[in-house]
Design goal:
By secondary structure, this protein is of the alpha/beta class. Helix content is 38%, strand content 16%. The protein has twelve helices and eight strands. Strands 1, 2, 3, 4, 5, 6, 7 and 8 form an eight-stranded mixed sheet that branches. Helix 7 packs antiparallel against helix 8. The longest helix is centred in the middle third of the chain and has 17 residues. The protein starts with a helix and ends in a 7-residue tail after the last helix. About 17% of the residues have low confidence.
């Protein structure tokens, strides 16, 4: 993923400045794609002629702000496949869904398409009071929360043989999760810990849910686990499949992310945005997402 690190840094900075953190709407008001050459990482002109989806060829960037739990599949599969199929250029900005929504509302990051891990976040961009950034959104996938772990961890054997909620409270266990203030996955992880603490009478789980020492940005959580800095972490199935992480189900608890897409009102590249969300509904794209752990929303 050649430029994702630069985009992650830019997204993180924008989040700090912000204070912490299937058809698109036909009535959205936005200018057509810019006729000038693409910005930044845009590719050279590719000529004209219809692509596999029947699109005219373009060289316009499409800025897609998406939930960072989809980083691997977006940057290595969906983005490159979209570029090849349409001639547009996918420019992805991953981050916590709540944080990205804040950046859109605060004009800190331009967006053509917004992909969230929770419909509730889309609602924070709807209506006049929220700036009318989103008029409608579409649910396109669901993935469940699991406990991904480091296969070299000294606790790996226990995680495979004992209930997860008993292992994560062992002395020295390093558990990672995301910030519920900026990421829906952090909210779900907190709920799992709280519910398991009450059901199994384990106050140590409640303490884990309340501490901030195990909270990390969603963009870096997989990397921290792969680097051996954590024994386990709360991840969506789409993340553990894409990163080839071993995982255990959260037995007794079934929490899922519901992914949505929306064409952002006042998108600078509206035609490109529409092309991207159409591409998400293509059978080949759906099959790719399913192989990576993103099930249908039905």
């Amino acid at each position: 993923m050649p430029d994702v690190r630069r985009r992650l840094a830019a997204t993180a900075l924008a989040a700090i400045l912000a204070g912490g953190i299937f058809a698109p709407p036909a009535h959205a008001t936005a200018p057509s794609d810019a006729s000038t050459a693409p910005r930044g990482t845009g590719t050279a002109p590719r000529g004209t002629g219809g692509g596999p989806l029947g699109h005219a060829r373009h060289t316009t960037d499409v800025d897609v702000l998406y939930a960072a739990s989809l980083t691997e599949v977006m940057e290595t599969k969906i983005g490159p496949a979209f570029d090849k199929a349409t001639g547009y250029h996918f420019v992805g900005f991953p981050g916590g869904s709540k944080s990205l929504a804040t950046q859109i509302r605060s004009h800190l990051q331009a967006a053509d398409v917004f992909i969230s891990a929770s419909p509730a976040v889309d609602k924070t961009l709807e209506g006049r009071i929220n700036g009318n950034w989103v008029s409608a959104y579409t649910v396109f996938g669901r993935t469940y929360l699991e406990l991904g772990y480091d296969r070299t961890s000294k606790f790996a054997g226990q995680l495979r043989s004992k209930p997860w909620y008993e292992v994560v409270v062992e002395p020295g266990f390093r558990l990672g999760r995301t910030d519920p203030a900026v990421d829906p996955k952090g909210v779900l992880a907190q709920k799992v810990l709280d519910e398991a603490a009450a059901q199994h009478h384990l106050p140590a789980l409640k303490s884990l849910a309340e501490t901030a020492s195990d909270v990390f940005p969603e963009e870096s959580l997989v990397g921290r686990l792969q680097a051996g800095q954590l024994d386990a972490g709360f991840f969506y199935q789409v993340e553990v499949v894409a990163a080839h992480l071993p995982s255990v189900p959260l037995t007794g608890y079934r929490f899922a992310a519901t992914y949505t897409y929306a064409v952002v009102n006042r998108a600078l590249h509206r035609n490109g945005a529409r092309a991207f969300v159409r591409f998400l509904t293509e059978p080949g794209t759906r099959a790719t997402l399913a192989r990576d752990g993103l099930g249908s929303a039905g």
